[in-house]
From TrEMBL:
Keyword Ligase listed: no
The name this protein goes by in its record: NAD-dependent epimerase/dehydratase domain-containing protein
InterPro entries to which the protein is assigned, alphabetical: Epimerase_deHydtase, NAD(P)-bd_dom_sf, NAD(P)_dehydrat-like
Record GO terms (molecular function): oxidoreductase activity, acting on the CH-OH group of donors, NAD or NADP as acceptor
A Pfam family assignment: Epimerase
Highest rank taxon of the organism: Eukaryota
Organism expressing this protein natively: Oryza punctata
Residue ranges of every copy of the NAD-dependent epimerase/dehydratase domain listed in the record: 10-222
Keywords in alphabetical order: Oxidoreductase
Length: 411
């Protein structure tokens, strides 16, 4: 593809799980991609030898930055990929990454669930950070559409009695309920609602075409060598005899003498991932699944490939209904969900398919077998989108493979 025909997309948070899959798909489709990370470290240093428009700033880097960014070098083999430093907390930080882009995919988001001040660190940070990136898009003057990756946390966290509820894009999570009752990850849901409202207002005032996508639990393989969110969350259902052995391996990697050694010996991405020590059978992660289902009435899942396909589909759609966003509040909102299920059903599937991982289905005794509430992607499907992964088993099998590759699960 010639440089003239090639479209350019910015993807924020390139070391993240979903962003890494999106970057790969965009490059495979012939896009030029600009991505941002907070600490480019070694990636920036290496790219700056070969690329002209990349920041020439070298920042002190940490071993976890090297590990988190390592896939970006590999993705460069697929097409033009530039890495920029940007922080949502800094005004104007995204200006260079967004300049000249046709589309901006705002995927990065604060995810520090353990903050002692979640209103500041999650809610304010998400709203202000999104507006920072949107201001950069407005300044660029080339961005045809902004696609925000939100979450079903902006849709489904509301008190609903009984069962049989089907949530669509008219549904909003209840901020007052969340701030009063403070269920698990309440501030994350509040952040998603408020950032969307702020982004819609900004888009309306600045004539920006905005689409907001609401993925549910996103699973399956991605290029990211580290997965910190949904992947270890669902894999916490699985455990295994080799668990201790895997932990010992990670500890050894952690004790590697120096960062230089780490880079020189070209430790594989899989080993680098282990530095983060996310393992299966994680009690903390596992304990979140139960209350989460109690609030949302389901555990809903989508394959990461389908999410990325949906985001690109919505970006490219010429007559997206988002142009009417100012008039119709729900016009630019799209839920991305291919399967609504329960934690008990997930555990039963895993137990049957992977007996070696000692899934404790009995810890979910008494929990509903079927979802009480479902998230519907009818609107996305009506627009012409087709999900590739509609079978729970296919999504979970790919997740298990990815978990093994990352070292989260023993082989
Ligand atoms: N995974 C899911 O199941 C799921 C479901 C629904 C919605 N989502 C949404 O999808 C998006 C990506 O999620 P993910 O699962 O891929 O998470 P992830 O792997 O943790 O990625 C989050 C990214 O955001 C970046 N980030 C955080 N704070 C930042 C800041 N202040 N400035 C710049 N970048 C910042 C992180 O960079 P650092 O590495 O520097 O921290 C990281 O690259 C999020 O908006 C999330 O809410 C995810």
């Amino acid at each position: 593809m010639s440089a003239v025909e090639r479209k350019t997309a910015c993807v924020t948070g390139g070391n993240g799980y979903i962003a890494s899959a999106l970057i790969k798909m965009l490059l495979e489709k012939g896009y030029a991609v600009n991505t941002t990370v907070r600490n480019p470290g070694e990636v920036l240093l290496l790219l700056s030898y070969s690329q002209v428009r990349v920041f020439a700033v070298f920042l002190p880097f940490r071993s976890d930055d090297i590990a988190k960014n390592s896939h970006l070098k590999d993705l460069q083999a697929l097409g033009p990929l530039k890495v920029f430093r940007a922080d949502m907390d800094e005004e104007g930080s995204f200006d260079d990454a967004v300049a000249g882009c046709d589309y901006a995919f705002l995927v990065a988001a604060p995810m520090n669930f353990n903050s002692e001040n979640p209103e500041k660190d999650l809610v304010e940070a998400a709203v202000n950070g999104t507006l920072n990136a949107m201001r950069s898009c407005a300044k660029a003057g080339t961005v045809k559409r902004v696609i925000i990756t939100s979450s079903d946390a902006a849709i489904s966290r509301r008190p609903l009695q009984g069962d049989g509820h089907v949530l669509d894009e008219d549904s909003w999570s209840d901020v007052d309920y969340l701030r009063t009752e403070k269920p698990p990850a309440w501030s994350y849901s509040v952040s998603k609602v408020l950032l969307e409202k702020a982004a819609c207002k900004f888009a309306e005032e600045n004539n920006i075409d905005l689409v907001t996508v609401f993925p549910v639990f996103t699973l399956g393989a991605a290029p990211a060598p580290v997965a910190r969110t949904s992947v270890p969350g669902i894999l916490s259902l699985l455990s295994g005899e080799k668990h201790q052995q895997a932990a010992a391996t990670a500890n050894q990697i952690n004790k590697l003498p120096s960062l230089k050694t780490l880079a020189k010996t070209r430790v594989t991405q899989l080993n680098l991932a282990a530095v983060f020590i996310y393992f299966s059978g994680d009690e903390t992660q596992l304990e979140v699944l139960k209350p989460l289902q109690s609030i949302t009435g389901s555990v809903s899942i989508v394959h990461v490939e389908d999410l990325c396909r949906a985001e690109i589909f919505l970006a490219e759609k010429e007559s997206s209904s988002s142009s009417a966003a100012a008039a119709a509040a729900a016009a630019g909102r799209y839920i991305c969900c291919s399967f609504n299920t329960t934690v008990l059903a997930l555990a039963r599937y895993m137990a049957g398919r992977y007996p070696q991982y000692n899934v404790q289905t009995d810890r979910f005794d008494g929990m509903p077998e079927k979802p009480r509430v479902s998230c519907s992607s009818e609107k996305l499907i009506r627009e012409g989108f087709e999900f590739k992964y509609t079978n729970m088993g296919d999504i979970l099998d790919d997740l298990v493979e990815y978990g093994r590759a990352l070292g989260i699960l023993p082989h």
